[in-house]
Amino acid sequence: MDPVNRPSADPARNPPPSLEVSGLAYAYPDGHQALFGVDLTVGRGERVALLGPNGAGKTTLVLHLNGILDAGAGTVRVAGLPVEKRNLGEIRRRVGIVFQDPDDQLFMPTVREDVAFGPAAGGLRGTELDERVTEALEQVGMAGYGDRPPHHLSFGQRRRVAVATVLAMRPEILVLDEPSSNLDPASRRELADILRSLDVTVLMVTHDLPYALELCGRAVILSDGVIAADDRTQSLLCDEELMRTHRLELPFGFDPRSVKVT
Amino acid sequence: MGHAHRLYRHGESPVHRLPPHCKLLAAFAFVVVVVSTPREAVWAFVLYALLLAGAAGLARLPARFVLKRLVIEVPFVAFALLMPFVVPGEQTEVLGLTVSVPGLWGAWNVLAKGTLGVGASVLLAATTELRALLRGLQRLKLPPLLVQIASFMVRYGDVVTDEMRRMSIARRSRGFEARGVRQWGVLAKSAGALFIRSYERGERVHLAMVSRGYTGSMPVIDEVTASRAQWAYAAALPLLALVVCLVGWTL
């Protein structure tokens, strides 16, 4: 920790950004290098879309955020706390990753036990734990489903419960891997409403560009292991040259200029 | 199916309400007592059966329900029925058939003890939800890895079956029909593919667990506790059985 680089203002009034990635590089053990120096800062309460073609290194980046993968070079900080071996417990509480397949995310016999898993692993017990579970399930509109086994829920419901499982840990930042994949339009909209209602920093990995535009004011493009662009989502999507360079395509008939972004 | 497994019968009886680890221990102790009873004490086994029937009555399980689930024992019965014909020893005649006396005793032994054991398990399964059973095992300090494996079987059994069904539909959609030995190769490859898929899912699930703070042991989410009265209630069945057993040995 270099004191020169620390914000000089009072940390209580000026909290550190939710996520600070700097100079992050990583090569897989087989020698394939996936990240070549990624720099990305996500402020408190921001919602940022992480876009990029397949194989750009998005998943690799996500797995660095909570220390599943060890950085080859560079650093990751979550609300000021560096991702290091001795901090991993706290880091994994602060970074809530929602994986793409809810069947992977929901591994306990019932919804309630699954939502309780994270906080219980953190040491919460008894009524406090129950309150935390109820609160998280209410946030995603699934309060009445605690005793159901996950495989008896619809896909959209399972995705929402998956979000609740990490919300229950009161994360600093919510990382969503393809949150809209496999959802029907109604479930897709319901999830968007939920995500908008949450008071939490969001990093959303997605190929669903209209969804990114709908939910995230800012977007970054990860391409060939570096951040190739970082701008307002609408400006990025309107830049045809940039989009083509990074193999990003809008769905047929969708014009990002026609959308009024609030 | 609801939220329960097929062996479970929803109810509010005092047996249903007992904490799972008490029931597990009671059932186990009962089986141990039954198995250690001398086979010649035929009357003891009748008493055991009556004890079990009494417990089933307290649990308000209909006799039909219990008897239907006892059918699982049939393969063992077949084995037991073979014994009088294959075990060497003194011969006797029953209904015009020559059978061996030690074989008859052996068959009776397997049949009586097996049936009582299955009966106790059916009773346990019918009054305890799967999740509760797992919590009970956890509470009884069964090696945590075994409990976790069992709990993942409960969670992912349907997911894997579903995957298997989809693969079978995909096979049949491309004109495959399993008609004979020649098609076994395809089936074996499908089984292999299913294994690899499940293995990879296991890796992804592990990733999701680690991401939520898993460090090798499952956190205790629902504490199961038992009062002294509950222990006493659960102990009634094996203790009564023990008395019968001791009398059986001394007579």
TrEMBL record, chain A:
<dbReference type="InterPro" id="IPR003439">
    <property type="entry name" value="ABC_transporter-like_ATP-bd"/>
</dbReference>
<protein>
    <recommendedName>
        <fullName>ABC transporter ATP-binding protein</fullName>
    </recommendedName>
</protein>
<dbReference type="GO" id="GO:0016887">
    <property type="term" value="F:ATP hydrolysis activity"/>
</dbReference>
<dbReference type="InterPro" id="IPR050095">
    <property type="entry name" value="ECF_ABC_transporter_ATP-bd"/>
</dbReference>
<dbReference type="GO" id="GO:0005524">
    <property type="term" value="F:ATP binding"/>
</dbReference>
<keyword id="KW-1003">Cell membrane</keyword>
<feature type="domain" description="ABC transporter">
    <location>
        <begin position="19"/>
        <end position="249"/>
    </location>
</feature>
<dbReference type="InterPro" id="IPR015856">
    <property type="entry name" value="ABC_transpr_CbiO/EcfA_su"/>
</dbReference>
<keyword id="KW-0547">Nucleotide-binding</keyword>
<dbReference type="InterPro" id="IPR017871">
    <property type="entry name" value="ABC_transporter-like_CS"/>
</dbReference>
<keyword id="KW-0472">Membrane</keyword>
<dbReference type="InterPro" id="IPR027417">
    <property type="entry name" value="P-loop_NTPase"/>
</dbReference>
<dbReference type="GO" id="GO:0006824">
    <property type="term" value="P:cobalt ion transport"/>
</dbReference>
<comment type="similarity">
    <text>Belongs to the ABC transporter superfamily.</text>
</comment>
<keyword id="KW-0067">ATP-binding</keyword>
<dbReference type="GO" id="GO:0042626">
    <property type="term" value="F:ATPase-coupled transmembrane transporter activity"/>
</dbReference>
<comment type="function">
    <text>Probably part of an ABC transporter complex. Responsible for energy coupling to the transport system.</text>
</comment>
<keyword id="KW-0813">Transport</keyword>
<comment type="function">
    <text>Part of an ABC transporter complex. Responsible for energy coupling to the transport system.</text>
</comment>
<keyword id="KW-1278">Translocase</keyword>
<dbReference type="GO" id="GO:0043190">
    <property type="term" value="C:ATP-binding cassette (ABC) transporter complex"/>
</dbReference>
<dbReference type="InterPro" id="IPR003593">
    <property type="entry name" value="AAA+_ATPase"/>
</dbReference>
UniProtKB/TrEMBL annotation, chain B:
<dbReference type="InterPro" id="IPR003339">
    <property type="entry name" value="ABC/ECF_trnsptr_transmembrane"/>
</dbReference>
<feature type="transmembrane region" description="Helical">
    <location>
        <begin position="107"/>
        <end position="126"/>
    </location>
</feature>
<feature type="transmembrane region" description="Helical">
    <location>
        <begin position="70"/>
        <end position="87"/>
    </location>
</feature>
<keyword id="KW-1133">Transmembrane helix</keyword>
<dbReference type="Pfam" id="PF02361">
    <property type="entry name" value="CbiQ"/>
</dbReference>
<dbReference type="GO" id="GO:0043190">
    <property type="term" value="C:ATP-binding cassette (ABC) transporter complex"/>
</dbReference>
<protein>
    <submittedName>
        <fullName>Cobalt ECF transporter T component CbiQ</fullName>
    </submittedName>
</protein>
<keyword id="KW-0472">Membrane</keyword>
<dbReference type="InterPro" id="IPR051611">
    <property type="entry name" value="ECF_transporter_component"/>
</dbReference>
<keyword id="KW-0812">Transmembrane</keyword>
<keyword id="KW-1003">Cell membrane</keyword>
<feature type="transmembrane region" description="Helical">
    <location>
        <begin position="43"/>
        <end position="63"/>
    </location>
</feature>
<dbReference type="GO" id="GO:0006824">
    <property type="term" value="P:cobalt ion transport"/>
</dbReference>
<dbReference type="InterPro" id="IPR012809">
    <property type="entry name" value="ECF_CbiQ"/>
</dbReference>
<feature type="transmembrane region" description="Helical">
    <location>
        <begin position="231"/>
        <end position="249"/>
    </location>
</feature>
